């Protein structure tokens, strides 16, 4: 089961990142072009939100069944182990919380520019945080 969840988490990450990048680019383009925020823009942002939340749920499952999770807290001097057991989960929880805040703020915004701006800023910061804590060596070797 661990192998399946790990492969799913790694594979879904490609889709989640693609959706998130697409949402950020769409929001920056919409904000800079002063276009109207449409249902299509809402769906793009929503798919980015859903993709990252699914990744978070699968990540939680993986964390609690993984030998790299809770049992490795005593070995914080090992950078690779610290990344997978502490930094990656913690920073990604913060990133997905920011993405969720961006979604909530866009719903309360009065005009299209403010909607695009909320998504662009919060999703963008979330994306940068996620990219900063991906265990690239492990991910690319799968």
Structural shape? elongated
- The span between the termini is 16 Å
User: How large a portion of the residues is in β-strands, by DSSP E?
Assistant: under 5%
Q: Quaternary status of these chains?
A: single chain
Count of strand segments? 0
Are there runs of 5+ residues with pLDDT below 50, and where? none
Q: What gyration radius follows from the Cα positions, in whole Å? A: 16 Å
Counting structural domains, the number is 1
What is the H-and-E element order?
HHHHH
Mean pLDDT across all amino acids? 90
Helix content: over 70%
Discrete helix count: 5
CATH architecture, by name, is: Up-down Bundle
Which structural class do you get from the secondary structure elements? mainly alpha
CATH topology: Four Helix Bundle (Hemerythrin (Met), subunit A)
Protein name: 50S ribosomal protein L27
Keywords: Membrane, Transmembrane, Transmembrane helix
Can you put this structure into words, describing what you see?
- By secondary structure, this protein is an all-alpha fold.
- It has a single domain, classed as Four Helix Bundle (Hemerythrin (Met), subunit A), CATH 1.20.120.
- Helix content is 82%, strand content 0%.
- The model has no long low-confidence stretch (mean pLDDT 90).
- This is 50S ribosomal protein L27.
Question: What distinguishing features does this structure have?
Answer:
142 residues; mainly alpha; 82% helix; 50S ribosomal protein L27; Four Helix Bundle (Hemerythrin (Met), subunit A); membrane
Concise structural overview:
The protein has helices spanning 2-33, 39-65, 79-108, 112-132, 136-141. With 142 residues, it is mostly helical. The protein is elongated.
């Amino acid at each position: 089961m661990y192998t399946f969840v790990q492969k799913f988490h790694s594979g879904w990450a490609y889709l989640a990142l693609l959706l998130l990048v697409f949402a950020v680019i769409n929001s920056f383009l919409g904000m800079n072009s002063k276009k109207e925020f449409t249902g299509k823009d809402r769906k793009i942002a929503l798919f980015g939100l859903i993709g990252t939340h699914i990744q978070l749920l699968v990540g939680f499952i993986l964390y609690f069944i993984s030998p790299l999770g809770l049992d490795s807290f005593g070995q914080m001097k090992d950078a690779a182990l610290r990344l997978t057991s502490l930094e990656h989960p913690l920073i990604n929880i913060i990133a997905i919380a920011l993405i969720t805040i961006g979604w909530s703020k866009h719903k309360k915004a009065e005009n299209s520019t403010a909607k695009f701006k909320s998504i662009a800023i919060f999703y963008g910061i979330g994306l940068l945080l996620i990219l900063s804590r991906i265990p690239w060596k492990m991910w690319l070797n799968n």
